[in-house]
Structures are given as C-alpha cells and as structure tokens.
Amino acid sequence: MDDDNQIHVPPSFMAVYTDTRGRLTEKANDVRARYELCEDLAGHLVEHAQTLYHVQAPSETEILQRIHAGLCTAESGVAVAEATWIVTRLAELLVWQCPVLVPPQPESAANAARPPQAG
Fold first, then answer.
1. Whole-number pLDDT of residue 96
2. 97 closest CA partner among 87, 107, 85
C-alpha cells in the first residue's frame, strides 16, 4: 500500500487480505476501507465489552468468544477473518488475553456431524 493515503494498515490486518504468496487479494483502497471499518468497530465494542464484564460478570474469554460468534454471522456485515481480527484487536484495546477464536460451524455442518437419533 504505497500510495499517498496516510492511513497505515497494520500487517495483522493486511494478512486477512493476503494470499500465500504475499499478494493482496483485494484492491488496496478496498482493504484500507475494510480496515477502517474493522478498526472503528473494535473501538466501538470496547464499551460494550466492559459493560458486559461489569453487569453480567462472565469471564473476559466468554465475552470475547460471544462477540466473535456474533460477528461471524452473515448479518454482521464482516467476513469471518475480519471478525477474528476485530475481536483480537478488541482484546488488545481492553488489555485482555485473547482466547483462541473458533468460528461457529454452519448449522448444516453441525447437523451432519451428529449421529442420527434413535427413534
């Protein structure tokens, strides 16, 4: 991203849009726009996560995993890789340990993995 734009996209986010050969899979302007969106979303989620921690008192890990699960849905408007980056960034902003973030399995895959019910 060598153009004159002053927004610095960190390598951690660039990795979301980089193939195995180190090439961007999207246009630089598109990656920059997605970065701005994801960074803003992480920043906005700080207060929400802190509120959950103080009101519901679940663990930091559970809060981050719940937020990740919500962001992994199609309705969130972000890709699964972006969701993982957002929650990792959120953990950094909160100075919380980031847990391993596993995207939820699609319903059809989860059902296929279950053995049939005896009836």
1. 96
2. 87
| pLDDT in the model for residue 58 | 82
Instruction: Note if the pTM is more than 0.90.
Output: no
Residue 89, token pair as written in the block: 């960034």
DSSP 21: T
- The pLDDT of residue 115: 54
How far is 102 from 65, CA to CA, in rounded Å? 8
Percentage of residues of the chain with pLDDT beyond 70:
83
69 burial via Cβ count (<10 Å: 0-12, 13-18, 19+): middle
Question: Rg of the Cα trace of the chain?
Answer: 17
DSSP 115: P
**Dihedrals phi, psi of 6, to nearest 5 degrees:** -90, 0
24, β-bridge pairs: 18
